[in-house]
Write a structure and sequence with these properties.
The chain has 370 residues and is mainly alpha-helical. Helices cover 64% and strands 0% of the residues. α4 runs antiparallel to α5, α9 packs parallel to α10 and α11 (170-179) packs across α15 (257-268). It binds protoporphyrin IX containing FE (HEM). The site of protoporphyrin IX containing FE has 24 residues, from α4, α16 and α17. Substrate binds at residues 42-46, 113, 313.
């Protein structure tokens, strides 16, 4: 019996199924007898997007799977972050890729545009799946006509999207993970009251500064003190659980009260070794959301350039609808808004020594104790 390796008969084109892939471009204008040169570009750009959407969903499903365990194994955080990072890098590419479609002149698009009606990128099932799996809810969508969102999809696709909405999204899972976070409270320490005291001290110092500032006129002082009262009210809504819940019911905030406390703890004390990775995770969620919004804006601008004020092939007002959707659609907005509640390190209450030790890497604790 020979142990020599046999030359594999695996062939590049077969492995990648290039026959199928490269045979999947069928311009409608060609079938109509007069091929519009740019329709090939239009098809290939869309197909490329769909391939990258597929990869994003592959990563996102793995992240959701890791989070679905009753308790997230913290050792998986690094690989979760690596996957989110990959998603974000792909998204940068997707935003850039719009330049490729912009090499098509609006008049050349008109050569085949009418053949596309009523199909539209609006019906991209994978794009919708990404939005929903990240955490977009039905009520977050911008309506563009009396015709309901799902009516624009084939029945089986609409059923698939509705079913996706019933599963826990990444937003839900991160909320639950944050809400379970330890460290915020024990016999000797309560993060929320310590943070509240720091905020109170900082606001009182600001008030004093405004009142006694020699270069501020009486009018300036009055205006700035009124602004400070507004800031106080904003903090009251954060500190008082009933006020926070009422904001949540109105859709002004989305995270649970416990989760927002944990997120703030992570943001404020992110230098602590054990909090560095959770901070990295929250930062990546913001990054992914920001890239999605950047894509929406970039796509809306490209559409204005391509269509002007024309309506879309899917029946929307075109650029107006897309711009509104870009302005209003955000999934992890609460994490963006955490910046309103931050304090500089100098004004932050130090953590108790015992907690600092818990949040340290084991090795550096040993080293310090030695
Ligand atoms: C000439 C190029 C393009 C034009 C003129 C265009 C136009 C439009 C318009 C007008 C809409 C709104 C719905 C409608 O009325 O049809 C739309 C939505 C959409 N398009 Fe495009 N599009 C183009 C290229 C692309 C590409 C390359 C993609 C990549 C997959 C894409 C993905 C989408 C998505 C996902 C939506 C839904 C956005 C939302 O609802 O917020 N489009 N497009």
């Amino acid at each position: 019996m020979t142990t020599e390796a046999q030359p594999s008969d695996l062939y590049y084109g077969d492995y990648l199924q290039l026959g199928r892939l490269l045979g999947a471009q069928a311009p409608l204008s060609r079938r109509q007898g007069s091929e519009a040169h740019d329709e090939m570009l239009f098809i290939i750009v869309h197909q490329t997007y769909e391939l990258w959407f597929r990869q994003i969903l592959h990563e996102l499903d793995a992240v959701l799977q890791a989070f679905s365990a009753a308790r997230l194994d913290e050792r998986r955080l690094a690989s979760i972050c690596a996957k989110l990072e990959r998603i974000s890098v792909i998204q940068h590419l997707l935003v850039e890729q719009i330049s490729v479609i912009e090499t098509m002149a609006p008049q050349d698009f008109l050569e085949f545009r009418d053949l596309l009606v009523p199909a539209s990128g609006f019906q991209s099932l994978q794009f919708r799946a990404i939005e929903i799996k990240l955490g977009l809810r039905e009520q977050d969508r911008t309506a563009f006509s009396a015709c309901a969102f799902y009516q624009r999809f084939k029945p089986a696709d609409a059923r698939y999207l509705r079913a996706l909405h019933t599963e826990p999204s990444l937003f839900d899972q991160v909320d639950a993970w944050l809400a379970r976070m330890p460290f915020l409270q024990d016999k000797h320490y309560d993060f929320w009251s310590s943070y509240r005291n720091s905020i109170e001290a900082s606001l009182s110092a600001d008030q004093q500064l405004i009142k006694t500032h020699p270069q501020l006129s009486a009018d300036d002082k009055e205006r700035q003190l009124a602004q400070l009262t507004q800031t106080r009210q904003q903090f009251d809504c954060l500190f008082l659980p009933e006020a926070y819940e009422s904001q949540r019911t109105q859709g002004l905030v989305r995270l649970s009260h416990r989760a927002i406390q944990a997120a703030l703890f992570i943001y404020l004390y992110r230098d602590e070794p054990l909090l560095q990775q959770p901070f990295g995770l929250l930062k990546l969620l913001v990054e992914v959301d920001e890239q999605l919004t950047a894509w929406r804006y970039r796509h809306a601008l490209m559409v204005q350039r391509m269509l002007g004020r024309r309506i879309g092939t899917g029946g929307s007002s075109g650029h107006d609808y897309l711009r509104t959707s870009a302005e209003r659609t955000q999934i992890f907005g609460d994490f963006f808004n955490l910046a309103s509640y931050l304090l500089p390190r100098s004004k932050l209450a130090p953590l108790p020594a015992e907690l600092t030790r818990l949040l340290d890497f084991h090795f550096s604790t040993l080293h310090r104790d030695a």
